[in-house]
Amino acid sequence: MPKSKAQEQLNCTIIGSGRVAKALAAALTGSSTSELCLNGIFARNTDEAERIARNNGAPKYGGISEMQRLEALTFLCVSDDALPALAQQLCHIPTAGPDACVVHLSGAHDLEPLTPLQERGIQTGSLHPLQTFPEGADAASFEGIYASVLGAAPVAAQLTRVARALGCKPVTVDAKQKKQLHLAAVFASNYMVALAALSERAAPGLSKPATQLLRPLMESTLQNLFAKGTAAALTGPVSRGDSSTVKAHLQNLGSPELTDDTDLSAAYRLLGRVAAGIARSDNRLTPETYDELLALLDDCQA
């Protein structure tokens, strides 16, 4: 009995040889279903493409110019800036069939960089895993995470199926929502690291980096955030309207050790205003206390 379209195995090709490409190759190979088949790895770094292919049992590998056809799914695991030129290059490669789809994993882009492929009648989409991929990331990086899905209805349906096969939770978005989600991800991930770095700079004289000493506090804050939401998770002097403590912090930021670190002072004032806004919206600050805090945070002489 022939397989239905929903059961057909999808031949997949990966273009790229970086951390995301390696993790995706492992995830496709270790998929919990037989729906996905890794057929090839192609990249500018042909040695690395061969290494990834051999590690994951992919029969084809080489440079991009050596690709003979675009499979059912071609995943572009390359830098954002490389997408437009790569799309132009892929236009000259035959497809495996009318349903062949080229998918980028970029968080920042919608489908505009793939316009040359669309103009040739090739389906395009985006599957962006909301995850970090450090060196050594593997198939487990996809387990249980959310992944945004962007594309026309048939493509979105197929990428939803792929995301689930990889162990992800798919979230269908439009182009505007995708860009907003990526912006949110930068705040939640990249800038969280920047905040940790600022905490270390705020206490330079400790025997250990501040992030080591503050790890239990940071972890419990995240637990409270996920369990209770942003407003309920907010604690500290700003949330309770403790102007004297805020003033003491600002004076400390002007100490000889910290006075030249203008980013630290600016970040404290900006985030203090954000925290005050959260507390005011949650009715934890009176209008008078809120205004007093803002005036203090805005006063560069404080």
Automatic annotation (TrEMBL):
A Pfam family reported for this protein in Swiss-Prot or TrEMBL: DUF2520
Domain DUF2520 residue range list: 149-273
All copies of domain Putative oxidoreductase/dehydrogenase Rossmann-like, residue ranges: 7-129
Xref: InterPro entries: 6-PGluconate_DH-like_C_sf (IPR008927), DUF2520 (IPR018931), NAD(P)-bd_dom_sf (IPR036291), OxRdtase/DH_put_Rossmann_dom (IPR019665), TM1727-like_C_sf (IPR037108)
Annotated SUPFAM superfamilies: 6-phosphogluconate dehydrogenase C-terminal domain-like, NAD(P)-binding Rossmann-fold domains
Gene3D superfamilies attached to this UniProt entry: NAD(P)-binding Rossmann-like Domain (3.40.50.720), ProC-like, C-terminal domain (1.10.1040.20)
PANTHER family: CONSERVED HYPOTHETICAL ALANINE AND LEUCINE RICH PROTEIN
Protein name as catalogued: Putative oxidoreductase
